[in-house]
């Protein structure tokens, strides 16, 4: 069992119903994001009437007991969201692997009334906890025989219940799309890759980057997708014999087309088909020997484990922490150990040992050189990442690509980070499927002016990490230029359209579908991929660009709060973008630990404002030194950011002072996050595959003719699946006046944010409590999980 780098804390439920009291204990180790899980479990535990404890120094603390067990309070987990690693220490513990060590741990748990464990770790940690659970009754019997506990304690603490959360930067645990810490590790990798690419381009160098992943190639594979690496080597899918020559040929061909750099990413556990390790130094020597390229090696090492947690990891850990508490509340004597997982955009519970056995089956398949099976066992998300990488990285010879259809791609609406990754993906997938790809500049306005040109494979090289919109984008809708656009469609023989954009893109497709009755040129397959920082597109839970904006908000809030360090008590009023959609404010508030968030979707009046001020004033008097209030830009016409700032300043006199900040367009800028790069890449690839299928279906008598509803669609992420939805069917789901969906999934996160800010509120558990199974738990249409 691998119990490396574990950290722990426990909490004890009170018993308002006068049932035998439950106590709970949480083990965790230290990838970024774990502190958010600690904070969520502690505060949710207190919210349900719990007495909370920390256990310092991991399993060692549980075995040693004594001062390692410390009561936690609401305030003890304040100001820890932005801190990486673990604030309560971690340590290896060989003693816990022995029966005697577990006997000592059982005694300490019984002395504290602990009968429930919440374990955060990898498969080794979870397996160890499950073994402890299985031995529990026997351990108590031994303690009675030794006279360490009374007979009545065996009856009182007869069962030990376990809920797991997966924390690992490798994302190597089967049953979840994403483990806590993985996204933060990808941020560290991509930050290094982006920095290296500038120097590599300047000096025409090849860089070999070694990333973590002794037994799992997830980090290597996804970072290769995110930066457009020329070659990637992972343990699950070793290269075929002769890979050395193929790799060098690929690098030479890339340089011959004018590219000034090459990036090769190697997982630390990469092997060849015969089990021989492929090291970064070996790859470097191959490139230097065969090509003579100036080649450097960068080994990222433990930098991937540290740093500030990403917004995704903070939100994931907070949601998982709350779900773990709910799971423990519902345990019975017959409840099997479960693990809280992420499927698409939904929290699910899976049997712990099913997940562990599936994870161990992956390693067994690799040991037996059944590599195809290993990839399948990793799950659909991993398979899709690998399939998409191969599709985008390895160009087919021109002779293998029959001249087929003409497909145009354009951006519509405001810029969003990740748009360029989506366009690159569409162009390369389209070319690989035999289409001619055309890029339209400046949206539909540029379309009407004939700003259309064919793009080749190499034209979109290096686009993945670029922010903004390299094609250019405008909010102009096509109705104004519909006749001229039809002329350009006919002139360039455009057979399909892929539109990457926000709410304007949805309106555009609705207008073009209406125009089909007058212009046959628009009777072609059309699909929209949502891309907007506001995340306000109906039909999709998430949009390209929203994650990058959330990270900008979260990092800015971290800095703003830090600016008050050492000063008197201070409250910051922050205004975010989003139009009438409160996604950025609400989810950004959850990720940054806001005390209040004001949005249009949840109306508020002066009484609510006054109650928030009083609540924050009370907290300032007793505990916290810094407060954070977020306001969506269009949340209320009268209660403006200035009004709220002045109200808090006046009512907080003598207790705290106020500062305000309007974040503005910084939320739209910057390099795209790893999530947005990969989400944009995969969703756009799927959209192009849909276009190819529709072109084949609608090609009749020498022409394409598509005029049915299902040939004009939006591709969106709905809970746990990527779904194509006819745009006309989205009309009933849309508030066109305020440009938002009528129902928005993230509103269910707002009570969670309020609970963690110490408000008394109800929490909707209608989506919780279902224990699924690993095999067959995913819907068939989930070809590209939103979690990378």
TrEMBL record:
Regions crossing the membrane: none
Superkingdom of this protein's organism: Eukaryota
Region (N-terminal catalytic PFK domain 1): 1-394
Listed GO MF terms: 6-phosphofructokinase activity; AMP binding; ATP binding; fructose-6-phosphate binding; identical protein binding; metal ion binding; monosaccharide binding
Reactions catalysed according to its record: beta-D-fructose 6-phosphate + ATP = beta-D-fructose 1,6-bisphosphate + ADP + H(+)
Notes on activation and inhibition: Allosterically activated by ADP, AMP, or fructose 2,6-bisphosphate, and allosterically inhibited by ATP or citrate.
Chain ranges of the Phosphofructokinase domain: 32-327, 406-691
Chain sites annotated for binding beta-D-fructose 2,6-bisphosphate: 475, 532-536, 570, 577-579, 633, 659, 665-668, 739
Entry-linked InterPro entries: 6-Pfructokinase_euk, ATP_PFK, PFK_vert-type, Phosphofructokinase_CS, Phosphofructokinase_dom, PKF_sf
Localization of this protein: Cytoplasm
Primary location recorded for the protein, binned into one broad class: cytoplasm
GO biological process: canonical glycolysis; fructose 1,6-bisphosphate metabolic process; fructose 6-phosphate metabolic process
Positions that bind ATP: 92-93, 122-125
Region (C-terminal regulatory PFK domain 2): 406-788
EC number: 2.7.1.11
Cofactor: Mg(2+)
Keyword Signal: no
Catalytic residues identified in the record: 170
Pathway: Carbohydrate degradation; glycolysis; D-glyceraldehyde 3-phosphate and glycerone phosphate from D-glucose: step 3/4
Coiled coil: none
A GO term from the CC aspect: membrane
Binding positions (substrate): 168-170, 205, 212-214, 268, 296, 302-305
Enzyme superclass (EC): transferase
Function field: Catalyzes the phosphorylation of D-fructose 6-phosphate to fructose 1,6-bisphosphate by ATP, the first committing step of glycolysis.
Subunit note: Homo- and heterotetramers.
Protein name: ATP-dependent 6-phosphofructokinase
Lineage of source species: Eukaryota, Metazoa, Chordata, Craniata, Vertebrata
């Amino acid at each position: 069992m691998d119990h490396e780098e574990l950290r722990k804390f426990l909490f004890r439920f009170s018993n308002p119903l006068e049932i035998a009291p439950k106590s709970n204990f949480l083990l965790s180790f230290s990838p970024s994001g774990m502190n958010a899980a600690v904070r969520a479990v502690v505060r949710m535990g207190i919210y349900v009437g719990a007495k909370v404890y920390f256990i310092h120094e991991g399993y060692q603390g549980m075995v040693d007991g004594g001062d390692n067990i410390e009561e936690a309070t609401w305030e003890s987990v304040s100001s820890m969201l932005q801190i990486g690693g673990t604030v309560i220490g971690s340590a290896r513990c060989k003693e816990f692997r022995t029966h005697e060590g577990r006997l000592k741990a059982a005694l300490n748990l019984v002395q504290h009334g602990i009968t429930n464990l919440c374990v955060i770790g990898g498969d080794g940690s979870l397996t160890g906890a499950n073994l402890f659970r299985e031995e529990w009754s026997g351990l108590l019997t031994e303690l009675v025989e030794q006279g360490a506990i009374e007979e009545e304690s065996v009856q009182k603490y007869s069962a030990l219940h376990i809920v797991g959360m997966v924390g690992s930067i490798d994302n190597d645990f089967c049953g979840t799309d994403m483990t806590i810490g993985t996204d933060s590790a990808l941020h560290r990798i991509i930050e290094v890759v982006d920095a290296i690419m500038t120097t590599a381009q300047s000096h025409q160098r090849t860089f070999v980057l070694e990333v973590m992943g002794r037994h799992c190639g997830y980090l290597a594979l996804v970072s290769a997708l995110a930066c457009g690496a020329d070659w990637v080597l992972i343990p699950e899918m070793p290269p075929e014999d002769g890979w050395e020559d193929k790799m060098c040929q690929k690098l030479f061909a890339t340089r011959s087309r004018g590219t000034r750099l090459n990036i090769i990413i190697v997982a630390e556990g990469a092997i060849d088909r015969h089990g021989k390790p492929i090291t970064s130094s070996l790859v470097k020597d191959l490139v230097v020997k065969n090509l003579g390229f100036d080649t450097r090696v960068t080994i990222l090492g433990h930098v991937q484990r540290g740093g500030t947690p990403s917004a995704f990891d903070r939100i994931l850990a907070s949601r998982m922490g709350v779900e773990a508490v709910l799971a423990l509340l519902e345990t019975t004597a017959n409840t099997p150990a479960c693990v809280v997982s992420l499927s698409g955009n939904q929290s699910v519970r899976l049997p712990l040992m099913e997940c562990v056995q599936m994870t161990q089956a992956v390693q067994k398949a690799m040991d037996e050189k059944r590599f195809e099976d290993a990839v399948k066992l990793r799950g659909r998300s991993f398979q899709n990442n690998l399939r998409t990488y191969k599709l985008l990285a390895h160009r087919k010879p021109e002779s293998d690509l029959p001249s087929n259809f003409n497909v145009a791609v354009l951006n519509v609406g405001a810029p969003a980070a990740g748009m360029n990754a989506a366009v690159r993906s569409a162009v390369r997938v389209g070319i690989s499927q035999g289409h001619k790809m055309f890029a339209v500049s400046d949206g539909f306005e540029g379309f009407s002016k004939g700003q259309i040109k064919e793009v080749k494979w190499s034209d979109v090289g290096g686009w993945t990490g670029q922010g903004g919109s390299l094609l250019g984008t405008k909010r102009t809708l096509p109705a104004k230029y519909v006749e001229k656009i039809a002329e350009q469609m006919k002139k360039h023989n455009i057979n399909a359209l892929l539109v990457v954009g926000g709410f304007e893109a949805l309106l555009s497709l609705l207008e073009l579908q209406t125009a089909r009755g007058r212009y046959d040129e628009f009777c072609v397959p059309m699909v929209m991929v949502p891309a907007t920082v506001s995340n306000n597109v109906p039909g999709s839970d998430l949009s390209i660009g929203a994650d990058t904006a959330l990270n900008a908000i979260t990092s800015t809030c971290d800095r703003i709060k830090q600016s008050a360090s050492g000063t008197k008590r201070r409250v910051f009023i922050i205004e975010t973008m989003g139009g009438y959609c409160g996604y950025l404010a609400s989810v950004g508030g959850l990720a940054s630990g806001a005390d209040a968030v004001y949005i249009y979707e949840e109306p508020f009046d002066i009484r609510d404002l006054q109650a928030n001020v009083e609540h924050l004033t009370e907290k300032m008097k007793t505990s916290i030194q810094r407060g954070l209030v977020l306001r969506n830009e269009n949340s209320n016409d009268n209660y403006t950011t200035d009004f709220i700032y002045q109200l808090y300043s006046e009512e907080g006199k003598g207790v705290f002072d106020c500062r305000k900040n309007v974040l503005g367009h910084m939320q739209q800028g910057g390099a795209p996050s790893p999530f947005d790069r990969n989400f944009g890449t995969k969703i756009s690839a799927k959209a192009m595959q849909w276009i190819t299928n529709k072109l084949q279906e609608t090609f009749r008598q020498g022409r394409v003719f598509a005029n049915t509803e299902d040939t004009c669609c939006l591709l969106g992420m709905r809970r746990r699946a990527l779904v194509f939805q006819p745009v006309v069917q989205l009309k009933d789901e849309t508030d066109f006046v305020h440009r938002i969906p009528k129902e928005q999934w993230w509103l269910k996160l707002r009570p969670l944010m309020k609970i963690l800010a110490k408000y008394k509120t109800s929490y909707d558990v209608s989506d919780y409590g279902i224990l699924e199974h690993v095999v067959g738990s995913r819907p068939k249409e989930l070809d590209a999980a939103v979690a990378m």
